[in-house]
Design brief:
It catalyses: 4-CDP-2-C-methyl-D-erythritol + ATP = 4-CDP-2-C-methyl-D-erythritol 2-phosphate + ADP + H(+). Keywords: ATP-binding, Isoprene biosynthesis, Kinase, Nucleotide-binding, Transferase. By secondary structure, this protein is α+β, with helices and mostly antiparallel strands. Helix content is 30%, strand content 29%. It has 2 domains: 159 residues, Ribosomal Protein S5, domain 2 (2-Layer Sandwich), CATH 3.30.230.10; 113 residues, Alpha-Beta Plaits (2-Layer Sandwich).
Length: 290
């Protein structure tokens, strides 16, 4: 058993998100193309004499008083499945904005599950773990896979996607809270067409222009600042600017890492209070053990 396990909790970006219906229990049905990025949070777990949980990083202050953190719920979920597991020290480096549409909390919980399974020597199939983790949130299954995928249903139907090349992007968040339930209530239509058939890698840009994020318009009615972010990304050369998830984080796609870095720097100068970073999509989340 390793003494310490470190897991990357990458940001989740919805390149396209179509709302296709609503179940009788009120959960909305989605069809979404998801990628994960180099930027993200970091979860570290280590054997300890007693349980502990610490948070650091630029957005740690927003979680200090959150007793029911998803990281701790993930730990307790594994214990509920496997009985008396030993104490563990968990550390979360919180680099991503909180509740911002890029899966921060869900990705943290997923990274915690992956790390603790390695630390404690637990073996579960990806499907079994995803089904159990769904109780923590609809984003958990896709964040457990942490690779390019299409998610359907409420997020639990996962289809890995191959062949999409790395994408250079800028993530920008204006620092406003956007309540997800209110966005779904503001939807003009809940019965929309699903994503079109995925294209070959060379046709991705054209395909994306034929898709959308159905939550973007209602989100802007609640937080007009999202429109400012989209305009800033477009004005600085983004080939496509779109909101991710339920917002308020938006992404802009760029032709190269250098172009993304130049755009991020320019936007950060004009909007110093925003979260702005250049990044690139990844094949899958990285892990480390010592």
């Amino acid at each position: 058993m390793p003494a310490k396990v470190v897991e990357h909790a990458p940001a989740k970006v919805n390149l396209a998100l179509h709302v296709t219906g609503r179940r009788d229990d009120g959960y909305h049905l989605l069809d979404t193309l998801v990628v994960f990025t180099e930027v993200g949070d970091t979860v570290s777990v280590a054997a300890a004499e007693q349980d502990s949980f610490t948070i650091q990083g630029p957005f740690a202050g927003l979680l200090d008083d959150e007793a029911d953190n998803l990281v701790l719920r993930a730990r307790d979920l594994l214990r509920s499945k496997h009985g008396d597991l030993p104490p563990v020290a968990i550390s979360l480096e919180k680099n991503l904005p909180v509740a911002s549409g890029i899966g921060g909390g869900s990705s943290d919980a997923a990274a915690t599950l992956r790390a603790l399974m390695r630390l404690w020597g637990i073996e579960l199939s990806a499907d079994t773990l995803a089904a159990a983790a769904l109780r923590l949130g609809a984003d958990l299954p896709m964040c457990l896979y942490a690779r390019t995928l299409v998610a359907r249903g409420i997020g639990e139907e996962i289809e890995p996607v191959e062949g999409i090349p790395p994408l250079h992007m800028v993530l920008a968040n204006p620092g406003v809270a956007v309540p997800t339930p209110a966005i779904f209530r503001a939807l003009a239509s809940r019965e929309n067409p699903p994503l079109p058939t995925l294209p070959g890698p060379q046709a991705l840009s054209a395909w994306l222009t034929d898709t959308r994020n159905d939550l973007e318009v209602p989100a802007q009615t609640l937080a007009p600042e999202i429109g400012e972010v989209l305009s800033a990304l477009t004005a600085n050369g983004a080939a496509l600017a779109r909101m991710s998830g339920s917002g308020a984080t938006c992404f802009g796609l760029f032709a190269s890492r250098d172009e993304a870095k130049v755009a991020a720097s320019a936007i950060a100068v004009l909007h110093p209070s925003w979260y702005v970073t250049a990044t690139r999509t990844i094949e899958r989340a990285r892990a480390d053990a010592t």
